[in-house]
């Protein structure tokens, strides 16, 4: 069995080898193939049952008590929580958009047996994406925690709305898009809950992401978390120990088969990230499905153990230097409004640890755009969209 520390070193070694191989094509693939195979064999646990989707993903049903999460040193004696203790208050306050269509999950007849959970089998491409996402997450966290002072954002662009008040999580609907990206670019939209500064920065995010290596330009469900400002921790989906999966239907990394179209039908994903009032664990709920949670023990007393101080909603992109940055959201500016610009609506916040939700005035959500000539964020009321909304996005085209 590989220890948690050795897993971190193994992952780092594989990433370095891959980066070198990408930068210097003369380096043989075999040089990193053995280490990569070792890593993938470790993170992909034995499957009791497997499915292959129409688009080629392999989804494994694994023993709920043998998932990678429990290799984390803080979770060795952790008992699985199958559901949050305060689900009812979130369900009662459910407010799906009346304009956007919900994306159905559980396609292809995928449902795991009792005592198992569903996970997407980790691939070489997932490892590459994890490295790039860590850089993206690190940039945003450092920007937030330092108030934008002396942070090099080369290649990174954000257009979001920020709610900077104490909270215990929130809920929102994100319109789903599939912006075109090159093999080295990323375009995403998410909701993030966070607190702390610099190395004490702790955050959890969830949303959709488009990364060509994963499956051309398709949009996927993703999560990312850190407990130390991405210094030692920082994990994409289930690539490292931490997130406890409980769903038998929805795996992290799941591919959306329906997305919004410019001027046409809008599709949304409803995401909730909230702290359980009794256990202190942070839950991820997609629509009304409890996907899983990040145990309280992953975080610290001066961090997410006692709630968050920021919720952020909106889009992020990454593009290498000298390559024109990709579309964010629909690829159109917020001024175009509903049906044409990407949005986040149905915003609700848990002001108290009991999980009761409230709708914050849209004036308390502050728009932020790091590159306003390419991407913008606006908060406004649009009669065509239920509830106040954050509209964000843009055509990109920025270079450095």
For the structure shown, list the relevant keywords.
400 residues, alpha+beta, 10-stranded mixed beta sheet, 7-stranded antiparallel beta sheet, globular
Low-confidence stretches: 6-29
Number of helices: 5
Q: Into which percentage range does the β-strand content fall?
A: 25-35%
Helical amount = 10-25%
Number of strands: 20
Q: Specify the structural class.
A: alpha+beta
Polypeptide structure, described:
- 16% of the residues lie in helices and 30% in strands.
- It has helices at residues 4-23, 30-43, 87-92, 124-145, 212-215, and strands at residues 49-52, 58-63, 101-102, 116-120, 156-163, 169-175, 186-195, 202-210, 219-226, 235-236, 244-245, 267-275, 282-286, 289-294, 310-318, 342-350, 357-358, 365-369, 376-380, 389-393.
- Strands 3, 6, 11, 12, 13, 14, 16, 17, 19 and 20 form a 10-stranded mixed β-sheet that branches. Strands 10-9-8-7-15-5-18 form a 7-stranded antiparallel β-sheet. A 3-stranded antiparallel β-sheet has the order 1-2-4, with no helix packed on it.
- β7 (186-195) and β8 form a beta hairpin.
- The radius of gyration is 20 Å and the shape is globular.
- The relative contact order is 0.18.
- Residues 6-29 have low confidence and may be disordered.
In terms of topology, how is this protein built?
Elements: H1 4-23, H2 30-43, E1 49-52, E2 58-63, H3 87-92, E3 101-102, E4 116-120, H4 124-145, E5 156-163, E6 169-175, E7 186-195, E8 202-210, H5 212-215, E9 219-226, E10 235-236, E11 244-245, E12 267-275, E13 282-286, E14 289-294, E15 310-318, E16 342-350, E17 357-358, E18 365-369, E19 376-380, E20 389-393
Parallel strand pairs: 3-12
Antiparallel strand pairs: 1-2, 2-4, 5-15, 5-18, 6-12, 6-16, 7-8, 7-15, 8-9, 9-10, 11-14, 12-13, 13-14, 16-17, 16-20, 19-20
Helix pairs in contact: 1-2
């Amino acid at each position: 069995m590989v220890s948690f520390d050795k897993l971190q070193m193994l992952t780092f070694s594989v990433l370095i080898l891959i980066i070198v191989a990408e930068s210097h094509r003369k380096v043989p693939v075999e040089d990193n193939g053995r280490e990569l195979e070792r890593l993938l064999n470790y993170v992909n646990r034995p499957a009791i049952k497997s499915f292959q989707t129409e688009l080629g993903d392999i989804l494994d049903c694994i023993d709920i008590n043998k998932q990678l999460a429990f290799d984390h040193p803080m979770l060795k004696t952790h008992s699985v929580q199958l559901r949050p203790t305060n689900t009812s208050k979130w369900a009662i306050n459910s407010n799906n958009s009346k304009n956007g269509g919900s994306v159905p999950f559980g396609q292809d007849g995928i449902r795991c047996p009792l005592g198992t959970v569903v996970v997407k089998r980790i691939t070489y491409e997932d490892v590459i994406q994890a490295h790039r996402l860590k850089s993206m997450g690190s940039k945003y966290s450092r920007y937030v925690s330092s108030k934008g002072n002396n942070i090099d954002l080369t290649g990174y662009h954000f257009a979001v709305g920020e709610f900077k008040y104490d909270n215990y999580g929130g809920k929102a609907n994100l319109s789903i898009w599939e912006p075109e990206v090159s093999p080295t670019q990323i375009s995403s939209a998410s909701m993030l809950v966070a607190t702390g500064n610099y190395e004490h920065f702790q955050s959890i995010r969830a949303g959709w992401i488009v990364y060509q290596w994963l499956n051309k330009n398709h949009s996927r469900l993703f999560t990312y978390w850190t407990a130390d400002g991405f210094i030692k921790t920082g994990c994409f989906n289930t690539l490292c120990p931490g997130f406890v999966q409980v769903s038998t239907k929805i795996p992290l990394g799941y591919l959306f088969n329906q997305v919004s179209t410019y001027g046409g039908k809008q599709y949304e994903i409803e995401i909730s990230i909230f702290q359980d009032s009794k256990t202190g664990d942070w839950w991820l709920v997609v629509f009304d499905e409890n996907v899983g949670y990040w145990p309280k023990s992953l975080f610290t007393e001066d961090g997410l153990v006692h709630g968050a101080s920021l919720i952020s909603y909106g889009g992020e992109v990454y593009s290498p230097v000298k390559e024109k940055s990709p579309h964010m959201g629909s690829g159109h500016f917020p001024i175009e409004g509903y049906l044409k610009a990407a949005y986040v609506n149905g915003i609700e916040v848990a002001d108290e640890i009991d999980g009761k939700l409230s709708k914050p005035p849209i004036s308390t959500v502050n728009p932020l755009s790091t590159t306003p000539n390419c991407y913008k964020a606006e908060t406004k009321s649009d009669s065509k969209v239920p509830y106040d909304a954050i509209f964000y996005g843009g055509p990109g085209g920025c270079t450095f």
